[in-house]
Amino acid sequence: GAGVSQSPSNKVTEKGKDVELRCDPISGHTALYWYRQSLGQGLEFLIYFQGNSAPDKSGLPSDRFSAERTGGSVSTLTIQRTQQEDSAVYLCASSLEPGLAGVTQYFGPGTRLTVL
Amino acid sequence: ILNVEQSPQSLHVQEGDSTNFTCSFPSSNFYALHWYRWETAKSPEALFVMTLNGDEKKKGRISATLNTKEGYSYLYIKGSQPEDSATYLCAFHNYGQNFVFGPGTRLSVLP
User: Given CB atoms, is B86 within the 8 Å cutoff of chain A?
Assistant: First the structure.
């Protein structure tokens, strides 16, 4: 497609369940980013992929969070044993090689996760 | 830890008013500074990317300036309209290839 897509758009789950969020970046974009926005908060960086590797995992809030990217394209963000504080909008963005000056991130529509 | 600040946190203006807000970022290892507009229930949308000290960018009624030596960027909106209501985010891009977003300025334009 023309833009970044994410699925599902909404996810309601029970505390303790695992969830998987998917991101399809713009074709040809080598960099992929995951962010989240909790209620009333700003954009929080989670993880960044260059190709299939993740040079920066510094933002993952706990070991319940993991992410992978395969084929330099689709990425999944997995949250195990979800907690209520995981409720947020999870945004994915992609860009061309971040080493290029002036490269822009393009955002997907987000997945709204609600943990009951 | 890279710190990107934005001020004010929020502001309300009347339709037709001009307004501006600030993004402050580290002045070392500068690579680029980005501005995004984030409307409620939509994805952040890129407005400008600036790479050179003294850069000025303009898109319709919105413009931005950049001072990399002192580490700040201003975003200006001339003749605000209700459709300008959104959160305006800046993002600092350094040589370490990190993008660090500021907390945003929430703008409400009252008709």
Answer: no
- Sort strands B56-59 and B62-67 into parallel, antiparallel or unpaired: antiparallel
Report CA A3 to chain centroid distance, whole Å.
15
Q: Which has the closest alpha carbon to B92: B37, B31, B7?
A: B31
Residue pLDDT tens, chain A, 116 long: 579 999 999 999 999 999 999 999 999 999 999 999 888 777 888 998 988 998 878 789 999 999 999 888 999 999 999 999 999 999 999 998 776 667 888 999 999 999 99
CB contact under 8 A, A106 and B46: yes
Beta bridge partners, B59, equal B62
Task: Tell me whether residues B45 and A107 touch, CB distance under 8 A.
Answer: yes
Nearest to A107 among B31, B44, B97 (CB): B44
For residue B109, count other CB atoms closer than 10 A to its CB.
20
Q: What is the full DSSP assignment across B28-67?
A: SSEEEEEEEEE-TTS--EEEEEE-STT-EEEETTEEEEEE
Q: From the CB of residue B50, how many other CB atoms can be counted at a distance below 10 Å?
A: 21
